[in-house]
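It would be a great kindness if you could assist me with a short task in structural biology. A protein sequence and the structure tokens that stand for its backbone fold form the material at issue. I should value your view on which stretches of the chain appear to form regular backbone elements. The record follows directly beneath this note.
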Amino acid sequence: VPSSVIHELLNGAQKDFDELTQDAPSTPTLALQRARLDRLFAQLYDAAGDSVQHEAMALRAFERLGSVATQRRFVAPYTWFARLPLQRNVATERTLAHEALAQAKFNKGDSAGARLAFQAMAREADGLVTSVGDASARMLAANARSHIARLSYEAGDLEAALLELDAAGKILSKHAAPDEIAFRQHAQKDAG
């Protein structure tokens, strides 16, 4: 399939979703879903090789995430009776949006910008590990460290790369559930 056809389909789908959601009542849950959709479109544009739209959609996801209420606000009547998304869901989406933005910057050759975005991803994911502590939060935090390790390696800083990979390993092994530990031990026995 030619890339022009893929771009046309993506642009059409994005436009259709924008039209569908613009007339819907503004609720915090819908705002989160709009941001998630923007982040997913950013990833699709990345896969299609459109770095301009990739970055634009990642930035739009951040903009929308900034308006997602997770607490009832006296000055914001739309939050009084609305179903509010969980703070951890918003933080997870922000973490993934950091990753999409970092990848867009990396694809454009902006290694410094990519590093900053991956570091922001790591901070956001660390907050999730602290507050939630589940396997998905640990995976996000370790993934951020592996991205930073890759950038360090490509910059020739092997020591920094090894430190980041070590941090990723510690994050993954920290507070692991018994079934996760058993799986890793079994996998190590099979490999050894």
User: Anything to note?
Assistant: The chain has a mean pLDDT of 83.
